[in-house]
Every structure is written in structure tokens, then in C-alpha cells.
């Protein structure tokens, strides 16, 4: 278990509760937190007195804003490899959550991004609220969707997942449900009641049904036509051309967002999504994402993207290469190169 209070664990009645407890950092995941969550899940899976696991975030702002990218940035600058160990354990935790044998209830209230999606959207019961903002925004920091994000987005209807992956757009409750990232809408004012009720009820579905409501209308459903047509293109360049030519202001806005992202990240992300569709299952996709993430650590765009968005906050990243046309197929293929003995092998059941 963790030596600090960054993850709070408790059991009550039939439920095990996990609370991510770094509210000032929007509950960003550290390596120690990942290992603590994994150890708790392993223990509770064998504990007959625990029938359901519930994960939530401390504070009012969200479940989790992702991994600790400041630490990853520092590791990349130093030419280190601590991030490799973090990702290895994080992705294996994602796999454990996806195959967990007991109901795993994720309260996706507020901001849920990157690694926050990884510890929630692979669960069996995923609850969003009117405050939810769910996203995989990695292309904006010179990275690529990970934590099983390419698996989730590749499974979304039509090309919705491609749109979310390339733009990094955050979606609310209804759109998260439409994309297959969440299951139920519960008003935030009722989460405490729902959470408490799970301690005493054996039927989780029945408990959730008592609190679930119809989600407020989303945005994506009315844009499906241009999203599906434009993002079906085979290259990022062609996607941009289609978006700009479509004639819909929302499509043009999407194109304007995409051109601000890392050209390398965009091309690798599109390739990762297409490959994830062919791979199908989560675990081989996590293995692929590990290769991509390890390659990204030595990419100049990850260091520059985090600098621009998080460290200096000037919002003016200088991508290298700066143009999509300068990113070759060989550049993209490098991110998918096998790692030999260092492969992830996400089917491993524990991070320890």
C-alpha cells in the first residue's frame, strides 16, 4: 500500500472504496497511486466480504486529470526510463480493471482525462454526471492516447472516436455514453446517496437504476454525418481537407483544432486507432500503446508539448516537424517497433 494518503482505501458493508486523493493536482496519477490501486483490487478480488468496488476522486473538480505529466516531462528531459515502469504498471492496472471479476463502479464526475479514463472507462459500471468532461487530449501535448484509450475510441460508433482522438475534445455525459465511454447518468447531487447505498446492496444494477436518469442532450449525435464522412479518410491530411471542404462550421472548427496539434502525434494516433480496430481486444492494444508511449518519451514533441501546455503555459508549442507533410511513414512506423524482451504483455495480472 502507499506510504502517503494519495489514495484512500476503506471498506464499508459489502463495498470497497477507492478515493484518488490529490485534489490540488486534480488527482493526477503517480506511480505509487497506480500500485496502491492495483494491490487493493488484487486483495479485494479474493475477499468474499467485498462484493463491489467504487472509485471516485477527492475534491469538487473531477475524478482524475490523467497521469502526472510533470514527472513524465522531467523524466524525458533527463533521458530517464522511470516513465517506462509507470506505464507498464498503469496499463496492466487498466487490464485488471477491464477483466475484474466483481462489479467495478467508476464515478466519472467532473474532469476525467487520460489516465483518469484508464481507471474508469474500462470498468463494468461507469457513471457520468452533468459536470463530467471526458477526454483523451494527448495530441495537444505531443503524445498519443494511451491507457487503453485507442481501444475505447476505436470501438466508438462510426468515426466518433477518431474525432475525439485527433482533436482531444472533451465530451459531456450524453456524448460519453454515445461513444461507449460511460453507461449511466446520475446527477452529481445524488452521487453520495448512490455511493452509500452500494455498501448494503448485492445487486449493483438495481442500485444504480434507482438513481440513474436520462442525460441532458449532447452535441455529437447531430454531427454524426460530417464526422463519419470526414474522418473515414485514410490520412490526416485528407481528413483535414474533407473537414475544410464540408461546409459545416463545426467541421471547420474541428480542422482548426487539429492543425494546432503535434503533426507526429496526429499521424501516430490515426495509425494506432486503425491498428486497434484490427487488434480488437484490449490487451494487445495496451501492448501496442506501450510501444508507442516508450517511443514518444524520446520524441521532442512530448517535452515541447508539456512545456507549452503545463510548464510555461504559453500555449505556443513548437512542434518538430512542424508540418504534417514532413512526418514520413517511417517516422510513424518507429512508434510501433517491437520492444523484444521489454514488451508489456498486458495479460500479466499484477503490477507487482
From TrEMBL:
Enzyme type, top EC level: hydrolase
Domain Enoyl-CoA hydratase/isomerase, residue spans: 16-336
Superkingdom in the source lineage: Bacteria
Keywords: Hydrolase
Catalysed reactions listed for this entry: 3-hydroxy-2-methylpropanoyl-CoA + H2O = 3-hydroxy-2-methylpropanoate + CoA + H(+)
Pfam families per the UniProt record, alphabetical: ECH_2
Record field: transmembrane: none
SUPFAM superfamilies for this protein: ClpP/crotonase (SSF52096)
Entry keyword annotation includes Cytoplasm: no
EC number(s) stated in the UniProt entry for this protein: 3.1.2.4
Name the record gives this protein: 3-hydroxyisobutyryl-CoA hydrolase
Species per Swiss-Prot/TrEMBL record: Streptomyces maoxianensis
